[in-house]
Amino acid sequence: MGLNDTPSADRIHIGIFGMRNAGKSSVMNALTNQDIAIVSDVSGTTTDPVLKAMEMLPLGPVVMIDTPGIDDEGELGALRVKKSYQMLNKTDIAVLVVCGAEESPQDIALIERIKSKNIPYVIFHNKTDAMPEGVRRKDGHYYGSALKKEGIEELKKAIIALSEIKDNGKRIIADLIAPLDTVVLVVPIDSAAPKGRLILPQQQTIRDILEAGGISVVVRETELAETLQKLGHKPKLVVTDSQAFGKVSAIVPEDILLTSFSILFARYKGILETAVKGAVCLDHLENGDRILISEGCTHHRQCDDIGTVKLPKWIKKHSGKEISFDFTSGTEFPDDLNGYRMIIHCGACMLNEREVRYRYRCAEESGIPITNYGTAIAHMNGILRRSLEPFEDICKILK
């Protein structure tokens, strides 16, 4: 996989923030050495957040986020400011662009928000060519002119130094297998499967197996039993799409480890323990409870969509209760979670780790259990404990 093929969720997200006309778009263009964002002297040119996956050498694959000014005015302006603040939830490194020598009250308020979210940040004073002579420069701040490409290399070095926080060495599956271990991946091909391709978690899992020197065998659930017989040896692990969990569990012998793509990615993004605890709450639903089902991406929903059709049906059957459901997708995630009994989130393959953790933290701070599709489905099929056996530390939760 080349740098340009790196999934957006695995790229460092660099957010550019600041007042209107501070030169945010110019800074982003200078950092990337490309004309990504429209630059204008007109205040408020950027009216919506702009996300662009690209390369920022020598750092590598990143997502650059250009945001509206945090001092925008009026009813529409307030919505734009809200959108800018929302971008903090997916920002790994923040760059605050200040026009001139001193931070504005809005800049200072934004810095406090950045600090409260523990986001590494750097402050760049732009348009310093227009600053009066003798203005004191603050230690730890960076100065220059984006249009003249002055101070950009120093700013880039500061961002690269902060990017080390992203290199955590976590793997999807490679740490669970040894070279030449066989992993069987069960990928149903039904009406909900994308035509002509595998979905991102499946692609990434295959790649991680290959990098570990393992052997990946990809089959549909309809060929799984025969495939296991023909292998001639026990695979180290079977990984299934969550929707086929029940069928696959009945086929795979108990002495073979079994889990799902969704559970693997919950561990990869650091929220598996919370998801496991949340799934158990499906046993304690009451009539009239509301559940939020949230997806991290937007897509054309099929007639048998897992989020809006299958999960509600399975939950009602499992609980035997009359439950109501709300649905969100993409960047939509409610600011107010009061009134929900629990939240069930997708596998979040399109969201970076910071945004996934933000959504889970919102639920935890509101005292609302949260889980994901795969963990919930495993629990409702009575195989959650079995699906956690590859992860000894997490499996202890259920003991």
Give the tally of structural domains: 3
Assigned CATH superfamily of the largest domain: P-loop containing nucleotide triphosphate hydrolases
**Approximate shape:** globular
Named CATH architecture of the largest domain:
3-Layer(aba) Sandwich
**How many DSSP helices?**
14
Structural class: alpha/beta
Radius of gyration: 24 Å
Number of strands: 14
CATH domain fold name of the largest domain = Rossmann fold
Task: Describe the largest sheet.
Answer: 6 strands, mixed
Please mark out the parts with pLDDT under 50 across 5 or more consecutive residues, or reply none.
38-44
Give the mean pLDDT.
Answer: 87
From the N-terminal CA to the C-terminal CA, the straight-line distance is: 40 Å
Which sequence of SSEs, written as H and E, runs from N to C? EHEEHEHEEHEHEHEHEHHEHEEHEHHH
Regarding CATH, which class of the largest domain?
A: Alpha Beta
- Strand proportion, as a percent range, falls in 15-25%
Helicity, as a percent range: 25-40%
Strand order of the largest sheet: 2-3-1-4-5-6
Describe the structure.
With 399 residues, the protein is of the alpha/beta class. About 2% of the residues have low confidence.
Summarize the structure.
With 399 residues, the chain is an alpha/beta fold.
Secondary structure blueprint with pairings:
Layout: E1 12-18, H1 24-32, E2 50-56, E3 60-66, H2 74-86, E4 93-99, H3 105-116, E5 121-126, E6 142-143, H4 152-162, E7 182-186, H5 200-211, E8 215-219, H6 224-231, E9 237-240, H7 245-251, E10 257-260, H8 261-268, H9 272-279, E11 290-294, H10 306-319, E12 324-328, E13 342-345, H11 353-365, E14 370-372, H12 373-380, H13 384-387, H14 392-395
Parallel strand pairs: 1-3, 1-4, 4-5, 5-6, 7-8, 7-9, 9-10, 11-12, 11-13, 13-14
Antiparallel strand pairs: 2-3
